[in-house]
Amino acid sequence: MASSSKPLPRCHESLKELAKELKMEVPHRYVQEQREPTFVSSGSLPLPSIPVIDMNDLIKIVLGSDDAVDELNKLRSVCHEWGIFQLVNHGVDKLLVEKMKEAMVEFFQIPEEEKLRYKLKEGEYEGYGQTILHDQDQKLQRLAMTLFHLIGQAVDIDKQEMSDVFEDGMQSVRMTYYPPCPKPDLVIGLTPHSDAAGITILLQVNDIEGLQVKKDGIWIPVNFLPNAFVVNVGDVLEIMSNGAYNSIEHRATVHATKERISLAMFFNPKFQADVGPAKSLLKNTRNPPLYKTLVMEQYLKEFFSGKLNGKTFLKKMKIENEEACET
Ligand SMILES: O=C(O)CCC(=O)C(=O)O
To answer: Where would one find coiled-coil regions in this protein (predicted)?
Structure first.
């Protein structure tokens, strides 16, 4: 699943095929007239780095250690201020991650006709999803569930409520191939958006950077740490936390001469779960709900009925002041 459709028009040729045909000109339909500029570091203004969360430290909380409170506080402030972090020591075997990456590179080399078998339906993405994750699936789900519990605990959402929403929830994958583009400054690889999911775990398959996140109105490139998973806070967590967390708006750029491949794994609530401010949180904090509640099925329908456009869908989920007075 995930945040859908770039404003790029749907076209029958694949991006890889198109890239082969490209000489020096970018077809007009791919040109982004008004791309917001990227942060440029200088001596006095170094590139802000995405916070790092160490799973080994977080695990102490799961084990019930009292001296791990700082780690939980760090997780809360990172999810609030950034909505993205690099997770190190995540426990997923390095070799298996390498295998997944190799499988993805191979996937993008298979003939187009064969690849079409995996293509997502119209109205979803111009990317491909498939079960390359097979071997890793359970480990990744367990990791995601542990993160959900900790992220919930950090803002006073009951563990049981997180389990009720996310245990055996929907998981989906998007692999995206970004072909080299002779004029990278003119195009955007993936339109700015936040993910509809609870969390997204992102992997970059080769070492070509391209992910950028919007922090305090500025687009910052993400330098992936070796062996780390980049974890995005999605809209569902912003809603469940009643705004204590912020989903991260991100986009992807393309490289002038090199292809880039990314894998986004989306961890979502169950189809029947309510997506709304967590009941235990509202009770524990006595705050009024700032977002509406929709059943996940309906939430997804509404999300995918619009175009990818920053965090506009989330705005629609917000309860306006007058509505709040009525409830
Ligand atoms: O390619 C990337 O690094 C980002 C991918 C992404 O944001 C997505 O698939 O939703």
So the answer is: none
162 Cβ partners below 8 Å, 6+ apart?
A: 148, 149, 151, 152, 278
Do 258 and 276 touch, CB atoms closer than 8 A? no
Supply the pLDDT for residue 24. Answer: 56
- pLDDT for 212 equals 97
Contacts of 97 (CB under 8 A, 6+ apart): 136, 203, 227
Q: Taking the mean position of all CA atoms in its chain, how far away is CA 240?
A: 16
Is the distance from the beta carbon of residue 173 to the nearest atom of ligand 1 less than 6 Å?
no
Q: Please identify which residue in the block is written with the tokens 């506009």.
A: 312
Q: Looking at the chain, how many residues does it have?
A: 327
Closest-CA residue to 147 (of 81, 274, 62): 62
Cα separation values, 179 from 51, 183, 255, Å: 29, 12, 8
Task: Find out whether the beta carbon of 250 lies less than 6 Å from any atom of ligand 1.
Answer: yes
Low-confidence stretches of the chain (pLDDT beneath 50):
1-12, 125-127, 129, 325, 327
Q: Specify the ligand 1 atom closest to the Cα of 125.
A: 9
What token pair was written down for 157?
A: 């959402």
Spell out the domains of the chain, with CATH numbers in brackets: 46-119+127-270 (2.60.120.330)
- Measured between alpha carbons, how far is 153 from 139 in angstroms, rounded to an integer? 21
What is the C-alpha separation between 130 and 91, in angstroms, rounded? 23
Distance from residue 198's CA to the centre of ligand 1 (Å): 15
Residue identifier of the C-alpha nearest atom 9 of ligand 1: 264
Containing 266, the helix (H) or strand (E) segment is strand 260-267
Q: How far apart are CA 157 and CA 165, in angstroms?
A: 12
In ligand 1, which atom is closest to the CA atom of 260? 1
Mutate which of 125, 172, 202 to test ligand 1's pocket (most atoms within 8 Å of Cβ)? Answer: 202
Residue 87 structure tokens: 């997770």
The per-residue pLDDT for 175 is 87
